[in-house]
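ARCHIVE RECORD
Type: protein–small molecule complex
Small molecule: zinc ion
Source of inputs: curated submission
Record status: active
Notes field left blank by submitter.
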Amino acid sequence: MWDSEKKIVLEMSQRMSQRGFVVGTAGNVSMRLRDTEGRQLMTITPTGKHYDFVSVEDMVVVDFKGNVIEGQHTPSIETMMHIEVYKTRKKVNAVIHSHPVFSSAIAVAGLDIPPIVDDQITYLGGGIKVADYALSGSQELVDNVISALGPRNAVLMANHGALCVGRDMREAFTNLEMLEKTARIYITVLGIGRLTAMPAEAIEVQMAFFEYMHGESG
Ligand SMILES: [Zn+2]
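STRUCTURE (tokenized, with ligand):
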């Protein structure tokens, strides 16, 4: 079942790998599933499989307790992190966890990215926070990521990588590209050694737009 959704997850995980947002078998991609029996489900990439050799049948379907509903493989080690995003962000239907170089560099520096460019704010929801370090697959990492993500569409993970979300898979991937672009700009600006802050009114207008598009109250 859910072959079309599994295909979307598969194709986006391969694109993530081809674009250099992960190396080897790292990273994981998932999508919320609509279930006729009313169960809360998602499909996620299997753990430890190289994206070039993964097929639709290798995708895993899990419920929101992490139980495997469909698939022969072990789901990603970060399965509970994806589930918690879907539980806390009702409008989010796709999650991508990757290790993009520039975003990861900022996460290694332990820096948040302040709101520095227009499209960062309208796509991602303002300044991007870095979640405190915790081991992969731990409940502590889940808690840290959810708290630092907040209502935004991207979060950095200290000494690890990043997580991006979207209302659909295309949007989640665009948000990943947007995060990495913003990280490159920020690192370049730090190198120049001079940063002009955005006008507060501009941030306010763009945040209102973001809230209208992505806010959980809307
Ligand atoms: Zn990772």
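CURATOR ANNOTATION: The first helix runs from residue 3 to 18.
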